[in-house]
Amino acid sequence: MVINLWFQYLLPHNHPEKECTCAPGSIRRYLSRISGPLLDRIDIHIEVTPVPYNSLTDNKQGETSSEVRNRVIAARIVQKDRYSKNGSVICNAQLTPALMKKYCEINASGKQLLHKAMDKLNLSARAYDRILKVARTIADLEKSDNIENQHLAEAIQYRSLDRESWGMM
């Protein structure tokens, strides 16, 4: 039953070609069943739209699972090495506030970008921490020693459920 409701409300809602026939406010009510404090504890929020048939059948080559796996393993090794002298911390998700200050430094323009996102999206302190940790991971995946603005911007995009307009598009 829950799965049927999920598809009934979300598939027409976010379909790139089909118009949603839901009553005004019904999507918002459905999505509001997920509490803010619970959403705050989820690092990455992504709204997934259906993939068009043509995209499934084209011959474009993307990254293979093996290539993605190798990038993730390399990033995890970087993290393990970085935190080897910090007790039980072995990855970015486990960073304490003190370690975040040391390893998740951002430049002035990055601070301004994050400040605007915090204000515009009305993000919590927990979301702020999650964004910095995810940005640090994105930087690690790109083999970057520093968190750059593009890493922050990508991490901010992964907080779509924090947006006031989510569920109303």
Topology:
Layout: H1 2-14, H2 26-31, H3 36-40, H4 53-57, H5 65-82, H6 97-103, H7 108-121, H8 125-141, H9 149-157
Helix pairs in contact: 7-9, 8-9
List key phrases describing it.
169 residues; mainly alpha; 56% helix; 0% strand; globular; disordered N terminus
Can you characterise this structure?
The structure is a single chain. With 169 residues, this protein is mainly alpha-helical. It has a domain at 65-162. It is 56% helix and 0% strand. The protein has nine helices and no strands. It has helices at residues 2-14, 26-31, 36-40, 53-57, 65-82, 97-103, 108-121, 125-141, 149-157. α7 (108-121) packs parallel to α9 and α8 crosses α9. It is globular and about 55 Å long. The two termini are 25 Å apart.
**Estimated helix fraction:** 55-70%
Distance between the termini: 25 Å
- Count up the helices: 9
How much strand? under 5%
User: Topology as H/E string?
Assistant: HHHHHHHHH
Extended strand count = 0
Question: What's the rounded overall pLDDT mean?
Answer: 83
Question: Largest sheet, described in full?
Answer: none
In a few lines, what is going on in this structure?
The protein has 169 residues and is mostly helical. The protein is built from nine helices and no strands.
